[in-house]
Amino acid sequence: MAIFLTDQSKVIVQGMTGSEGTKHTGRMLKSGTNIVGGVNPKKAGTKVEIEGVSLPVFATVAEAMEATGADVSVIFVPPKFAKDAVIEAIDAGIDLAVVITEGIPVHDSAYFWAHAVAKGEGPVTPGAPRTPRTRIIGPNCPGLISPGKSNAGIIPADITGPGKIGLVSKSGTLTYQMMYELRDIGFSSAVGIGGDPIIGTTHIDALEAFEQDPETELIVMIGEIGGDAEERAAAYIKDNVTKPVVGYVAGFTAPEGKTMGHAGAIVSGSAGTAQAKKEALEAAGVKVGKTPSETAALARELFQAGN
């Protein structure tokens, strides 16, 4: 099993003909992803050969979906055009939009997230939750991989294989490290949700999906300083997650008031510190490592104890 992305997923790439889009389309194809086309209005009607596969280029996401049955779009579009690209995918009704682009203005991310919610399902009364029709992962993320099935984004596919661990992470590089360190066990899915202040899919969304996935036996959650996402995830775990969870929070040595790498990683006073997040997670029964390697060791220990 896997969450969000399976071997049945049909993937298109918005920005496929750009340098990054072409490079990572090739890597996704090599890892077995079923890529069925790309989107670039200026090159619509042409075909591009990548890794020996001839891929059609469409003018719009809607046209690509109609012609191919695509249900996932990976977005490699420059920041100033990214908002329009995501809105186009939402309006076309794509199931999953994976926004890789870094440096999208927060206002733009807020706009396309609000648009996804407005197009969603559920009550429209103020304050009531609505489920977006399109699941957004990112922006500023490495994407997600269900090893042996499909890979949507820039996560290296050769560092791990399929297995029983679910991974959700704000950090791309820590995603890769955790996948490598636990490669002997393997992963059901690994989801890089991104580190911007406003993102689509959250830790809680992934935790809920992993809890429901019968093949996921243990969950690893990687957070970082800034905001309160990890504290909210801790409260969710305490009330809703029955599977063992291991956590890591990056940024114990970060100076106060300084943005660290990700736009959302900024500490203000005692709010958003690594220590506060660690304490919240431990209070919810999550084992938290002091380093990524210690976190991997805790996960392996817990997994072996349950098998």
Label this structure with key terms.
Rossmann fold; alpha/beta
Offer a concise description of the structure:
This protein is an alpha/beta fold.
Q: What is the global morphology? A: globular
Radius of gyration over C-alpha positions, nearest whole angstrom: 19 Å
On the 0 to 100 scale, the average pLDDT is 91
SSE run: EHEEEHEHEHEEEEHEHEHEHEH
Structural class: alpha/beta
Q: At the third CATH level, what is the topology name of the largest domain?
A: Rossmann fold
Catalogue the unreliable spans: none
Describe the protein's architecture and organization.
This is Succinate--CoA ligase [ADP-forming] subunit alpha. Substrate binds at residue 176. Keywords: Ligase, Nucleotide-binding, Tricarboxylic acid cycle. The chain is α/β, with parallel strands linked by helices. It has two domains: 11-137, NAD(P)-binding Rossmann-like Domain (Rossmann fold); 159-305, Succinyl-CoA synthetase domains (Rossmann fold, 3-Layer(aba) Sandwich), CATH 3.40.50.261. Helices cover 34% and strands 22% of the residues. The chain is built from nine helices and 14 strands. It has helices spanning 19-30, 61-68, 79-92, 106-118, 172-181, 203-212, 229-240, 274-283, 292-305, and strands at residues 11-14, 35-39, 47-50, 53-58, 72-75, 96-99, 135-137, 143-146, 150-153, 162-169, 187-192, 218-224, 245-250, 287-289. It has a seven-stranded mixed beta sheet with strand order 3-4-2-1-5-6-7. The chain has a seven-stranded mixed beta sheet with strand order 9-8-11-10-12-13-14, sandwiched between helices. Helix 7 links the parallel strand 12 (218-224) and strand 13 (245-250). Helix 6 packs parallel to helix 7 (229-240) and helix 7 (229-240) runs parallel beside helix 8. The relative contact order is 0.12.
